[in-house]
Amino acid sequence: MSNSYQIVVCGSIVPDPLQTLEPVTGPAGPALKNEMILPAVLDPWAGHALYEAANLARQLPGSKVHLVSLGPKAKLQQVMMTVAQKVPFELAALDGPANGFTDPSETAAALAEAIQGIAGLDKSRLLVFGGWESASRGAGATMQMVGERLGIVDQFQGVDALKVNPDGSFEILERIEGGRHQVSRCAGPPALLGWATGNLPEPKNNPQVGMTNMRTVMPALQRAKAVKTGTEGVTFASVALPRQQRETRIVKDASPEEIAREIVDWLKQ
Q: For the segment 96-145, what is each residue's pLDDT rounded down to a tens digit?
């Protein structure tokens, strides 16, 4: 198999899911309380896309993986110290907010511009990977708009598996309604894939891979272009966590049918 690809993964950083997030309204609009202090991780959906990209590149000699990431530069540096040890990639960094209070269209525009600025980009070999969803930018539209701005019409969302055939075509396993999958065929690149969970575990840390990656990661962070992805002209009336509601009542000798009926009645309220 002589196919080789340029695989670009779009992936941002998000606060560690074990942290308690508290939205606040600041001078520039909604934000997270103590946002710059919160520990951050690579977005889980973007992580699946990155690991799948690295696995594909390993199978096809000559392929290369680029990671385009938009987030606060200081936080990106912290996260990349860990991510760089997972798989080989070349980083293209953008300095901007990653708190979820961003506009998908402006985010897509910034990502597409960064992808187009990759040296030696060959769209006839281009595969754009990203998360089907996001732990911060859960608009469900960012990757689609990235593809449109790049002129990529073959887009697949909710991808769990990708198989490259000897003739260069793809077989793609996509999630659809009802807990089922559909198999799609694509003649070849360019194509955009929004990954769900994929099939690969998180790779183990490899210090040698990390040292190789950091030679390009640090210069990329120093060159990171500042971008605005805010929602100018949009006013947030308030931002708050969902309220918890707990109503406990102890009842003895209730039948399962009675308990189920009471739960259904409570939900209907």
A: 877 667 777 888 888 899 998 888 888 888 999 988 877 666 667 888 88
Residues 34-74: tens digit of each pLDDT: 777 777 888 888 889 999 999 999 988 888 999 998 888 88
Q: How many domains does the chain have?
A: 1
Which CATH number does the domain housing residue 100 bear?
3.40.50.620
78-84: long-range pairs with CB below 8 Å, 24+: 78/39, 78/40, 79/13, 79/40, 79/41, 79/42, 80/213, 80/214, 80/217, 80/221, 81/210, 81/214, 82/205, 83/42, 83/50, 84/209, 84/210, 84/213, 84/214, 84/217
Q: Is residue 34 part of a domain?
A: yes
The pTM of the full predicted model, rounded to 2 decimals, is 0.79
Flag whether 190 is in a domain. Answer: yes
Domain annotation covers residue 250: no
| Domain coverage including residue 114 | 6-226
